[in-house]
Design goal:
This protein is α/β, with parallel strands linked by helices and about 675 residues long. The chain contains 24 helices and 22 strands.
């Protein structure tokens, strides 16, 4: 009887790309698997089945160089790839091994083949139920069952690595046998490679036995029993997890192993929305639509680039201006003239200001503003209200007491890495609490007051005027952080609309419609104080940011974008009120109209917020309890969003009445608590 092993392999693994070519002691994983399985006494052929894609040309070249037989077929239809391989080599009995099993054991293969012949079955495996370690899975079957599967299996049975097992669970036509592991509790071990931590463990196993690469399953188990801590490093990864995860989820797991925190912006962390389900990554964005890694299209009625895309995603005019800049060169030894034109434009919009300093991120701009203000005041200590980024000066507020930032950022923030000598240099105060601010100023040698113009409400003008007067009286530099509120209700900073003028203002987010550009504007006497300080960065001199900002401002002005998004926001807020009234769901609505959000007045609000996201995703909406509106949004899409929300509010109402349980209908973990501010 001709018996062949087909090793299923590809380079396009989402969680650990090109894993089969990763090296362990100078040999790639695919090579190690091949060499180990070559010791089988009952196998006549070993063939590697790989996709016919440009990406996998590299794998094909490697196999050819190593004189390893291979066949190239469909990438996504794994079943078809197997079928064509069997057909090409005229195989009768097949053993399926996956290329993410670097310790595949030829003794297990031979034992299974013998059982397959003895039992006279059509399909034999150790996968149903699973009693062996993950990574020692073996399937043996005849071409008859493969032919039937090729003709009758549905798409869902073709896409992932489980070529036959899931199909057979729904089919009683063939004789099936499952092999139980002789070793008790062996299935608690994971010796496959899907993620970086898996690869770490496999390397440790090979290091333990080197130079011998032909150690068997029993020796690995003995090693595991002696090194329990080592073999638990990947225990959090569930069996066949990959088949249940979509591309975005796999990418997120991959990111968590190599990127600190998983991503670079807390507001975009999927755990803030819908853990284990949020799409997380995008391929394309246009208008208010977003395409995820699986090309599924969502309507963004959520953060819209965390407030950056005020004109909508991929605005044609802005992008064309940027393209032109790129074609002409983005960087050079010389400076870009666009920043001069942008500075002039911003000062034109803010006639109280005389000087500008540009950066590329809100955090950078906040740090620059604080540096300038301290230089101008000659004092180190500052009082702040609201959220202002991640820098030491801000997080130092939690050195004295860990909860000082709870109402400004997120609760329980540990200021690790912030120098201890910054203790008692930053003091937080609540928006509207002038009495407390005045107390801080009287007790401390405050040189800077830094705050958002508004937080969860419209600007408190009497309060802001008191702050302005206090700063003037005490010669304190007043900074307004308008990264979020800028360009939302007027062209420029909101402070101009309410006629409360700071010494410095920070503008960002919407300024570049998704391109990185921020600005610190101020009065000459304040800005010039920092001339002898040092604030410099290579990428503050690139052209894309200023180019995008100039075109964005032009479009804003032409379309009066702030009027449009404010009116649309007022419509949205009124509809929220109507829906909540109908369903008797108590809401608290806050924020500027174009940045509005609601909170359900319930102890289970965070559950409900997560549920809203869960149900909205089903209808292709990215949504939670707040909306950043853009020029791209229209009443049509807002009404569609409201139709879905209406049904969700009905269910929430039923939960509040005790007729349903949110814990039962919520299918995913509860989202993390977000910032204690606008978003």
């Amino acid at each position: 009887m001709s018996i062949a092993i087909i090793i299923q392999a590809r380079l396009g693994s989402t969680r650990l790309p090109e894993k089969v070519l990763k090296k362990i002691n100078d040999k790639s994983i695919i090579e190690l698997i091949y060499k180990r399985l070559s010791r089988s006494k009952l196998i006549n052929h070993i063939i590697v089945a790989i996709p016919k894609t440009k990406r996998d040309d590299k794998l094909a070249h490697f196999l050819k160089k190593k004189n390893i037989k291979f066949y190239r077929g469909n990438e996504s239809d794994v079943l078809s790839r197997f079928y064509q391989t069997v057909k090409k080599f005229n195989l009768k009995t097949i053993v399926r091994i996956t290329a993410d099993c670097p310790v595949a054991d030829p003794k297990i293969v031979d034992h299974f083949v013998k059982l397959f012949i003895k039992k006279k079955v059509d399909y034999l495996s150790n996968c149903n139920p699973w009693t062996y370690p993950d990574g020692l899975d073996v399937e043996v079957f005849n071409n008859k069952i493969l032919n039937y599967a090729q003709k009758n299996a549905k798409k869902k049975h073709r896409l992932n690595g489980g070529v036959l097992i899931s199909f057979l669970r729904e089919n009683k036509k063939f004789k099936v046998y499952n092999v139980k592991c002789p070793e008790k509790d062996a299935n608690k071990y994971r010796i496959t490679v899907d993620e970086e931590i898996d690869f770490y463990l496999i390397k440790k196993i090979y290091d333990n036995f080197k130079p011998n690469i032909h150690f068997d399953f029993k020796k690995i188990l003995l090693m595991a029993k002696k090194n329990k801590k080592l073999f638990s490093v990947n225990s959090n990864i569930s069996l066949n997890e990959g088949s249940s995860l979509n591309k975005s989820q796999k990418m997120w797991k991959r990111a968590n192993s190599i990127i600190l925190g998983g991503n670079s912006l807390l507001s975009k962390n999927p755990n803030m929305f819908l853990p284990n389900k949020w799409p997380t990554y995008f391929k394309k964005a246009k208008g208010y639509k977003v395409w995820d890694l699986q090309n599924k299209v969502f309507n963004d009625v959520s953060l819209m680039g965390v407030g950056t895309n005020i004109l909508g995603y991929a605005n044609k005019q802005v992008d064309e201006a940027v393209k032109k800049t790129i074609l002409n060169g983005n960087m050079s030894t010389l400076n870009c003239f666009e920043e001069v034109e942008l500075a002039e434009k911003l000062i034109q919009i803010h006639p109280w200001a005389n000087k500008v300093k540009f950066a590329r991120t809100g955090g950078e701009a906040n740090a620059i503003a604080v540096r300038i203000a301290r230089a101008a005041s000659g004092k180190d200590k500052l009082a702040f209200c609201g959220y202002h980024g991640w820098h030491d000066w801000y997080l130092s507020a939690n050195l004295k007491k860990e909860g000082n930032l709870d109402s400004h950022l997120i609760p329980g923030l540990n200021p690790l890495g912030v120098p201890k000598n910054l203790k008692n240099t930053s003091y937080g105060f609540m928006y509207g609490d002038f009495k407390n601010l005045k107390k801080i100023v009287s007790e401390q040698n405050i040189g800077v007051i830094k705050m958002e113009v508004c937080r969860n409400t419209q600007p408190n003008i009497p309060f802001l005027k008191k702050v302005r007067n206090l700063c003037t009286e005490k010669k304190i530099v007043l900074i307004f952080d308008e990264c979020t509120s800028g360009f939302r209700q007027n062209l420029g900073g909101l402070h101009q609309k309410i006629n409360v003028i700071p010494d410095l203002v920070i503008l960002g987010k919407a300024l570049g419609n998704g391109y990185a550009i921020t600005a610190v504007l101020g009065k000459s006497e304040v800005m010039d104080s920092a001339k002898s300080s040092f604030m410099s960065s290579t990428f503050w001199t690139e052209r894309i940011g200023p180019t995008a900002a100039l075109k964005t401002l032009e479009i804003m002005e032409k379309n009066k974008s702030w009027v449009y998004i404010t009116d649309l926001g007022k419509f949205l807020i009124n509809e929220w009120k109507k829906i909540s009234s109908i369903h008797k769901v108590s809401l608290s609505i806050s924020g500027l109209p174009s940045l509005a959000k609601f909170s359900i007045q319930s102890k289970k609000f965070q559950f409900y917020k997560t549920y809203i996201t869960q149900e909205m995703l089903k209808k292709n909406f990215l949504a939670a309890n707040g909306v950043y509106l853009s020029l791209a949004h229209d009443k049509y899409i807002i009404k569609k969003y409201l139709e879905v929300l209406d049904g969700i509010f009905y269910t929430i109402s039923e939960c509040e009445k005790g007729k349903n349980s949110i814990e039962n209908i919520l299918k995913y973990p509860v989202s993390h608590i977000p910032f204690s501010r606008l978003n």
